[in-house]
Fold these 2 entries.
Entry 1:
Amino acid sequence: MFKKILIANRGEIALRIHRTCQDMGIKTVAIHSTADENAMHVKLADESVCIGPPQIKDSYLNIPSIISAATIANVDAVHPGVGLLSENSEFAKIVNDHGYNFIGPKYEHLAVMGDKIEAKKMAKKIGLPILPGSEDNVKNYKDAIEISKIIGFPILIKATKGGGGRGIKKVFSLNELKVQFSLAKSEAKSSFGDDSVYIEKYLINPRHIEIQIIADNHENVIHIGERDCSIQRRSQKILEECPSPVLTDNEREKIYNISVKAMKNLNYQNLGTIEYLYENGEFYFIEMNTRLQVEHPISEVVYGIDIVKEQIKVASGMKISFKQNDIKKYGHSIECRINAENSKTFYPSSGLIKTYHVPGGPGIRVDSALYSGLEISNHYDGLVAKLIIQGRDRKECLMRLKRALTEFVIEGIDTTIPLHKSIIQKKEFISGQYDINWLEKNI
Ligand code: ADP
Ligand code: ADP
Ligand code: MG
């Protein structure tokens, strides 16, 4: 097992990984920008290295600085966390080339799944159901017309290198196609440095359902159930549930089996999440995230597994510590993403945290790196806390969620706590009858 791990991330997720390392007796090395000198992930780590100025391109995305930090601290492995460099295949390769273990999948799998066209081709090859759309990069408007005639409107134009809900354009008719196509290409170029786009059938009322996978280097692939992430704003997840309130047990088994079989075909290793859209009883692959996922705690709660611990174990060459039949789901879990933004305007918010009071009692977990007196800057991702609730069934979970949101106090910045309070009052949410567009239409 590793003795020392460098955590190449910040905030809540860096702290989450640090905590599991502590539980495993592994020393941690934090990296931080000059703006994060007083951050909780730095205070709690065994060692820390400053890797650059506030801007992420000069610090948390600065690969030479991170590799130097790994060398200075003499670590065995690097955990990339979530976002930032976690899906960067070049980074994984450089980490390996310098003799450190990259806690994630193989370089080739990061590369193929990081390119959404290649990912979709691969998905088809390994037996995943995909949505109708272009097989390749759509180079020009003429080809875009051809494809949209075949699959029919509405369609989406998606950036091949897109992510975080950005780089997706909806097109409802041929009249809009020309303008949207050129917009999609130029935005893809400016946001992701690559203007390639592809076209996909747009589903009107789907749910977002994803399957958590873990695989070791000994040909074991296990699923850890599904998460329903249909409460979204601008294609970004706001609240997630495990299990999904709408799937039947037959549908569950079907998609678990398809997912596990596909990962075996791919010879995949480490953690992965296969994202699907679900409509009228059918699943359609949209992408695969080759890393730990923000919403992993709801699966941990329901299945009683420390997913980060298993991830570290399999990265070190050990087998997964359980078999498929050993794990059983218990009850229900919901995660609320608490972002530093205004609940009505969604403008990012920054400032000094004046009061920070976390809820407690039965069924409550809070993953956060906040504390009173911390300065929240606008350089980084706005996710500042995750409220994770457990209940023996969905009803108990909802009651506890309501209690926890009432107790939670974060003063000094705007947060999305009021948004969550209003979501959980709505009858569609309470009954579980919502799709990916529901939140934007109803809040
Ligand atoms: P998806 O890509 O399907 O939305 P997730 O929501 O699990 O998957 O996570 C990706 C998002 O996490 C990124 O788009 C980004 O907004 C956010 N993120 C990036 N860096 C961090 C970080 N250090 N801590 C927490 N969240 C981050
Ligand atoms: P990202 O990398 O930004 O997470 P995804 O492909 O996972 O990109 O899509 C993000 C979200 O966009 C999905 O969860 C869903 O809400 C919406 N979406 C993506 N593809 C489609 C589609 N074909 N039809 C309808 N909605 C879609
Ligand atoms: Mg996604």
Entry 2:
Amino acid sequence: MENIDWRNLPFGYIKTDYNVRCYYRNGQWGELEISSSEQVSMHIAATCLHYGQESFEGMKAFCGKDGKIRVFRCADNARRMQASAACIKMQEPPVELFVEAVKKAILLNRRFVPPYESGASLYIRPLLIGTGAAVGVKPADEYLFMVFVTPVGPYFKTGFKPVNVMITRDSDRAAPLGTGHVKVGGNYAASLPAAEQAQKAGYATSLYLDAKEKKYIDECGPANFFGIKNNTYVTPQSHSILPSITNNSLMTLAKELGIKVEQRPVEATELSTFEETGECGTAAVITPIGKIFDPQTNVTYRYGEEAGPVSTKLYHLLRAIQYGDEPDTHNWVTII
Ligand code: PLP
Ligand code: COI
């Protein structure tokens, strides 16, 4: 692509050539369709517009040194979309349909996959919406599953440099027994006030605490939180946290590097004990955290101006597997 500045891509939307779509109607999924339109036409009473029947996923495809395109843990994202769909009573797209749609969307837009040297990637956004009409609150009888792609740079413009975050104390992203553990649009709507509040105060994003007691760490912006101390990778466990595929990969890699892993409730008071902290996710990859500000106590926890050694090691190893520079011993990568 002649006119894309691959090295300076933001995390945003760039029009690509095609997207793929599949309709669920009359009790079955149809054929995958290719579209060059950025528009979706639907019924004015579609349940996604009124009652939040929507789920999405996020993945990345990478161009290797060898010119091959690799997509990371696609079937795991398919299974997570199934869990999201089941949670809000939507029709689950079969894993094979999801994977085929992702492959097709990448191949049809292969000229938008950023080159190896750029360090950028092709972001893949599958989404599922209730399109059947309903006025009473009930699940739709028709669904539309779509996949679009767009080339992206780092989620935080600093890339692999520490960002500062602020603890949120006056709103919640997800209720204790709500939908925080799945990837549905309503969670992100609920996160907007906290994100705006943090950004207005000069922070990159917000660190959520558990909704019930405001005692435990939940998530960090649209990413999971982790802390490092005493050669241990610590990450919170709770029903309202999205099970991040990146975090799951990092826990596996950490163990292989001889780092202990603890996934358990993490009290906010423990923030003072970490040597390194960070957030992890498809978009965020690993984004180290430099400072965490607690507006209630006025305390700022500091972790340094540069990424710590454990976060750095994990970041480079994960990226090397994703780009095909290190062997894929876990079968995480699908070559397209
Ligand atoms: N937590 C939230 C709320 C997210 O939106 C995401 C992004 O998908 C993550 C965590 C990270 O999940 P993953 O690593 O599977 O992208
Ligand atoms: C991702 O990491 O893929 C996400 O979905 C985060 C996003 C909401 C920007």
